[in-house]
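Backbone-to-sequence.
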């Protein structure tokens, strides 16, 4: 069977991938730079027999997702940074009630209303649990329009598999750029949902809740959730390793920053410098092992982000003091260039002693 290739924006690829994953309920509210997602869904959902609803607010949107998911259907919402902040209470409720859903965050500059330029300042919010309570999201960070399409499909599959909300953390550059996308037909799994609120004729009624008031009940539920997150760590970690085998300097970056950094890595290699890249595809679970193993042979790490230092903390925890971990960031919607990152990498490249030999580790 031939695979159709089309030119899509990143936002459109996220929307089309979601539709092909079986999403039939979309609830959202406009905010730049993710507006192409609801615009696309408003046209495509009726064509697919689905429901598109522009809610009166971000709070309403996430709670509509809660209601739809509780009925056993695939539902999603999308927004950008301030809008995701408004959804955080509902995301915590989804996690506490063990309801699958997909939330897309196409990040913009902050804090506050900030600006509409691309940013990566929502890393903490996404991977550390931006709402209240002990919970985690499975978080994907695409770096291309094709990957945005593929990970949108994967997000719905994993949301159902783990009965957990999944976030796709993109940014304004990825959301707005256009690239060819192969619209591969997904092989979707069939997930039974005996917990769903589908009417209780012939069975005991189901209850979907995140309120556990019995003695020790909430503590036991938190351990149930914790075991699920540990399963995610064992089974779902994803990372790309680029020119890593003999790298003396290992660059850590994700999403758009990684895409730009990869160009600079190629230039460093052309200049005879042994530089490699580890790009997390899952931000939670974080690919700790990839960085831990790289620390056995590399001499130094450099984390590059479009913020003032968030993922760098997870890189340092993974390396665990075995090698120095430096940081370079551009906050508030600043996007680095390949030439800029080349100069940063050259500055942080492990040096040599005056006698010409390698410095001791």
């Amino acid at each position: 069977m031939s695979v159709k290739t089309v030119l899509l924006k990143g936002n459109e690829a996220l929307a089309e991938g979601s539709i092909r994953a079986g999403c039939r309920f979309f609830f959202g509210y406009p905010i730049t730079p993710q507006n192409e997602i609801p615009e696309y869904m408003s046209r495509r959902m009726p064509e697919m027999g689905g429901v598109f609803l522009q809610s009166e607010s971000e709070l309403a949107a996430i709670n509509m997702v809660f209601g739809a998911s509780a009925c056993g259907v695939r539902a999603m919402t999308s927004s950008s940074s301030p809008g995701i902040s408004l959804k955080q209470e509902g995301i915590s409720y989804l996690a506490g009630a063990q309801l699958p859903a997909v939330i897309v965050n196409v990040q913009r500059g902050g804090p506050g209303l900030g600006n509409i330029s691309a940013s990566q300042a929502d890393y903490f919010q996404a991977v550390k649990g931006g709402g209240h309570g002990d919970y985690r999201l499975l978080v994907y960070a695409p770096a291309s329009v094709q990957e945005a399409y593929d990970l949108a499909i994967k997000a719905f599959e994993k949301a159902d598999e783990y009965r957990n909300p999944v976030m796709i953390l993109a940014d304004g550059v990825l959301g707005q750029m256009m690239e060819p996308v192969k619209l591969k037909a997904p092989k979707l799994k069939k997930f039974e949902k005996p917990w769903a609120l589908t009417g209780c004729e012939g069975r005991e009624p189901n209850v979907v809740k995140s309120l556990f008031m019995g003695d020790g009940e909430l503590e036991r539920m938190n351990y149930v959730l914790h075991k699920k997150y540990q399963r995610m760590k064992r089974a779902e970690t994803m990372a790309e390793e680029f020119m890593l085998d003999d790298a003396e300097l290992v660059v850590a970056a994700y999403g758009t920053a990684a895409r730009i950094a990869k160009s600079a890595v190629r230039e460093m290699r052309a200049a005879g410098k042994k530089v490699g890249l580890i790009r997390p595809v899952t931000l939670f679970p974080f690919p700790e092992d990839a960085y831990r193993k790289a620390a056995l042979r590399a001499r130094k790490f450099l984390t590059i982000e479009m913020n003032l230092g968030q993922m760098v903390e997870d890189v340092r925890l993974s390396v665990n003091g075995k090698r120095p971990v430096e940081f370079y960031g551009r906050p508030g919607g600043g996007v680095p260039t390949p030439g800029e990152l080349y100069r940063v990498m050259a500055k942080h490249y492990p040096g040599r002693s005056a006698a010409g030999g390698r410095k001791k580790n």
